[in-house]
Specification:
35% helix; 36% strand; seven-stranded antiparallel β-sheet; alpha+beta
Length: 179
């Protein structure tokens, strides 16, 4: 019996070491991107993205936690605008600051999560003419620390975050197309 337990313990340790070694080989950056074609001019879409006060009209993250606390600081919109949140569960806590804008084609945001896990990312919205519509791309990119790599073995981050981005873009489409 003791021999069996020793063998089982060795197998468990080897399996854990294999998972840790595999995690160490994963890419050190995360990039998630989704896009949508919205039947509206960029000038009609841009203000909804460039003003954090208007994110409640379309952002999928605004409905995650009804008790989430929000605060706004800095510029009212555009470069220097700041949005902070703190909630329970999936909402976590963090801060976004618009780092750069180029109306009506670009909004670049510094995104810092403080809970449930610390992370700093760059989020971009690009709006490009696409015939009689606008192609809106929502992307997020940032470093993946070891704990993030380990988590990524068990959870597909592109799918998890990408699903939220797709929902947000569909909401943005409804908000601007009026459907």
């Amino acid at each position: 019996m003791l021999k069996f337990l020793l063998i089982a313990a060795i197998i468990l340790v080897v399996a854990i070491l294999a998972v840790l070694a595999y995690a160490a080989t994963l890419p050190g950056r995360l990039r998630v991107e989704r896009q949508a074609r919205i039947q509206a001019p960029a000038a009609a879409i841009f203000p909804l993205i460039n003003d954090f006060h208007r994110w409640a009209e379309w952002s999928p993250y605004e409905t995650i936690d009804p008790t989430m606390k929000r605060s706004f600081d800095g510029a009212p919109a555009g470069k220097g605008a700041v949005y902070q949140w703190s909630g329970d569960g999936k909402a976590g806590a963090g801060r976004m600051e618009i780092a750069d804008t180029a109306p009506p084609s670009l909004v670049r945001i510094r995104l810092d999560f403080t809970r449930p896990m610390r992370a700093s990312n760059l989020t971009e919205f690009t709006l490009e003419p696409d015939g009689d519509a606008t192609r809106v791309r929502w992307s997020m990119e940032g470093p993946t620390p070891f704990i993030g790599k380990l988590f990524g073995i068990f959870v597909d981050m592109d799918h998890l975050i990408g699903r939220d981005f797709a929902t947000g873009l569909a909401n943005l489409k409804m908000a601007t197309e009026g459907r």
